[in-house]
Amino acid sequence: MNSCISAKNLCTYLTDKASRFKCPSVLWFVRIFAACTVYAACAHPPRPLNVESMPVAAVTATSVESVQESETAVMKEKPGPPEKTLMQQALETAQQDKTKKYFVAEKDNITVKADIDVENRRFTAIYDVAHAEVDLRHAILHVSFSIEDEETHETRTGVLKAEGAPDAGILLAFDDDYHENWERNFGLFDRFGARVTFFVQGKPLGFCKLALEWGHDVGYHTMHHLNLPRVPKTKFLEECTAEIGVFRDAGIPLNSFAYPFGLYEPWMSDILLTHFNILRGYGVTFHIYDRDTIRGFIASKAIDNTLYKNDSEFKALTLLMLRTVKLTGGVLPLTTHDISTQADWGIKPERLEFLLKTAADLKLKFYVYKDFLD
């Protein structure tokens, strides 16, 4: 009814406007249009949609179906992210600190690598440990690396942000009988929280008990520091085992033994392992051991003054060694003798401080030999 009234009002308005033109044809056309409009409005009024009268299920089903169709259409129109290439997957793996890494040592050059397999394709990552940047506040290494596809030889580069292995550390030892110089540096060890092992010669002295009181360890280094492969077996036994009971009765356990000059014969180890838990060799080769494998015989790298041309070379190799063990994990044995600027077979105090500070900055652990008893 309201629609019919509105149509009539519209017609009256149009007729009034048309009459002002005083044109019979226009007036005639408007009157016909108005009459048709009124008829249509009155004869076929619009019927409102009564949603309340429709079944709820029908409305819901229709709405859900429409939404689903819309979502499907959008999904078809919007393509998903492109699949990552094998190289991209390998690159992301190389950037993860959890990637298993290993090292290759050639003289004083150490290379840290990781082998990565992606869908039966092999990639090799090489980490530039020597030029790594160190976040001293959090002991985090930022290490640049390159990665190569072994099949296509495609290469990419990236940066690894590494916290390193939490149990990585060094096993630092001092040999011979430089008791006074060692004791003079107890405060230096203590400043960096460093624990070390002293392989002593001869008979038990007051230094041994004092070292234990400071938290260090004491091992044995024979009576007179002889070249053991050149002495008779009876002399060998006298040099290596005669005083063991005296030390232990004095409260010095002597759990470990270091060969003088690093020289020995295999049969010697068979005998000495009945008296000591760990036997230590000595040389210039770089070794890292898993904690669980520090048993029986191990080799230790020398860091004596005579092995380095200058302080810069010592610092460069020390950084490389300690960062390597930080990344790969494990324990790095190191050995020197005296603590002196002049000694060839010893370490300068400033070099020792650099070593201890670098290890502490990297949050490496300071192990002693008694930490690895059965």
Count every helix, treating DSSP H or I runs of 4 or more residues as helices: 12
Residues in helix, %: 25-40%
Strand content: 15-25%
- For this structure, the CATH topology of the largest domain is TIM Barrel
Helices and strands, in order, run as HHHHEEEEEEEHHEHEHHEHEEHEEEHE
The CATH superfamily name of the largest domain is Glycoside hydrolase/deacetylase
Structure description:
By secondary structure, the protein is an alpha/beta fold. It has three domains: 2-77, no CATH class; 86-162, no CATH class; 169-372, Glycoside hydrolase/deacetylase (TIM Barrel). 38% of the residues lie in helices and 24% in strands. The chain is built from twelve helices and 16 strands. It has helices at 2-19, 24-43, 56-77, 86-94, 179-184, 186-191, 206-213, 233-241, 244-249, 266-272, 311-328, 349-361, and strands spanning 102-106, 109-118, 121-127, 133-135, 140-149, 155-162, 169-176, 197-200, 217-220, 256-258, 278-283, 296-302, 331-336, 338-339, 346-347, 365-367. The strands form three sheets. Strands 7, 8, 9, 10, 11, 12, 13 and 16 form an eight-stranded parallel beta sheet that branches. Strands 1, 2, 3, 4, 5 and 6 form a six-stranded antiparallel beta sheet that branches. A two-stranded parallel sheet has the order 14-15. Strand 10 (256-258), helix 10 and strand 11 form a beta-alpha-beta unit. Helix 1 runs antiparallel to helix 2 and helix 11 packs parallel to helix 12 (349-361). The model is unreliable at 1-5 and 48-62 (pLDDT under 50).
